[in-house]
């Protein structure tokens, strides 16, 4: 049977881009269940134009880049999705993502797979070669996570000891002041981290596709998962460790390291580059189901639509 797919979308700007994404998903997947967390504090949005199959988390959570609030927003939207619907699979997207494969192709792949999640992961401390030997092939577009610098950074973010000090941060050209902190990373492991030999730390790309079983694990955290949450609450980029660490340590859960996402990192940086018309051949030649990131109303989106809906 063809699996039902639901969508979780995280967004914080560009309401028109979000609406276009939703309408395209509806056209491809036949009005699937969609749960959206849109950060109303960063960008107010009128939800009236959105189709009835879209549910918004209310009230929204004030999110910030690389902060635990991003994980909270995802979990709130995932709970909303499975409260109002019970899809076989869910896909986590940002508002800057876009589908690049027809729905029948995605459904056929998910129906044929024996895994519980398509999720990029590697254990902290692994080299690229050791992760390949232990866990199998990965998404070839995510070389960013295989670099020596990224591996050192992830150890520092998730396992290393930290000292931090309160400070004031100035935003909007100095017009807005907010409390912040300065973090000093220490060259040894934190004695308070929740990780151990039988509960190691994993990390990888944020964007995942997973089945109902994985969703339930994320929505019903164990005491060990709650301790992990408390640890990551004040750590940088927790959204690139929490899902991986929970799912990789769960007995019986099977995972595919290729998360079927296309992105161009160009060897480094905190964000993938924006995709455009010049990237279209590589985008469509990939085995990915979705691509990111796109600028609002970039002409490449019209070209992708023409390919996806050719003959409709």
Textual characterization of the structure:
The structure is a single chain. The protein has 312 residues and is of the alpha/beta class. It has a single domain (5-151, 193-308), classed as Spore Coat Polysaccharide Biosynthesis Protein SpsA, Chain A (Alpha-Beta Complex). It is 33% helix and 21% strand. The protein has ten helices and 14 strands. Strands 3-2-1-4-11-6-12 form a seven-stranded mixed sheet, sandwiched between helices. Strands 5-14-13 form a three-stranded mixed sheet. It has a two-stranded antiparallel sheet with strand order 7-10. A hairpin with a 4-residue loop joins strand 8 and strand 9. The radius of gyration is 19 Å and the shape is globular.
**Quantity of strands, as a count:** 14
What amount of the residues lies in strands?
15-25%
User: How far is the first residue's CA from the last residue's CA?
Assistant: 23 Å
Helix content range of the residues, please? 25-40%
- List SSEs in N-to-C order: EHEEHEEHEEHHEEEEHHHEEHEH
Assign an overall shape: globular
User: CATH first level: which class?
Assistant: Alpha Beta
Summarize the structure.
With 312 residues, the protein is an alpha/beta fold.
What is the topology?
Elements: E1 5-11, H1 15-29, E2 34-38, E3 54-56, H2 68-84, E4 89-94, E5 98-99, H3 103-112, E6 117-118, E7 122-123, H4 128-135, H5 148-158, E8 160-171, E9 176-189, E10 202-203, E11 209-211, H6 212-219, H7 223-232, H8 242-248, E12 255-256, E13 261-262, H9 280-285, E14 290-291, H10 299-308
Parallel strand pairs: 1-2, 1-4, 2-3, 6-12, 13-14
Antiparallel strand pairs: 4-11, 5-14, 6-11, 7-10, 8-9
């Amino acid at each position: 049977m063809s699996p039902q797919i639901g969508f979780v979308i995280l967004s914080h700007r560009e309401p028109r881009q979000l609406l276009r994404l939703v309408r395209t998903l509806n056209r491809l997947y036949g009005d699937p269940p969609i749960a959206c967390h849109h950060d109303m504090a960063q960008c107010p949005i009128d939800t009236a134009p959105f189709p009835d199959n879209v549910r918004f988390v209310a009230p929204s959570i004030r999110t910030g880049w690389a902060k635990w609030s991003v994980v909270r927003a995802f979990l709130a939207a995932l709970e909303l999705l499975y409260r109002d619907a019970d899809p076989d699979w869910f896909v986590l997207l940002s508002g800057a993502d876009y589908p690049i494969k027809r729905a029948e192709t995605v459904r056929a792949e998910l129906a044929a797979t024996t895994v519980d999640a398509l999720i990029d992961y590697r254990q902290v401390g692994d080299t690229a070669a050791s992760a390949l030997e232990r866990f199998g092939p990965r998404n070839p577009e995510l070389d960013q996570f295989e670099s020596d610098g990224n591996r050192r950074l992830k150890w520092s973010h998730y396992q290393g000891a930290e000292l931090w000090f309160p400070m004031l941060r100035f935003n909007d050209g100095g017009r807005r002041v907010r409390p912040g902190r300065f973090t000093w990373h220490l060259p040894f492991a934190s004695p308070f981290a929740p990780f151990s030999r039988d509960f190691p730390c994993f990390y990888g790309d944020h964007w995942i596709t997973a089945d109902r079983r994985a969703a339930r694990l994320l929505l019903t955290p164990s005491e060990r998962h709650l301790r992990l949450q408390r640890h990551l609450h004040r750590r940088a980029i927790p959204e690139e460790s929490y899902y991986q660490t929970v799912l990789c340590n769960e007995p019986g859960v099977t995972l595919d390291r290729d998360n079927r996402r296309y992105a161009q990192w160009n060897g480094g940086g905190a964000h993938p580059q924006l995709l455009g018309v010049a990237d279209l051949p590589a985008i469509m030649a990939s085995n990915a189901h979705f691509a990111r990131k796109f600028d609002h109303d970039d002409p490449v989106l019209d070209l992708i639509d023409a390919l996806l809906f050719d003959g409709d």
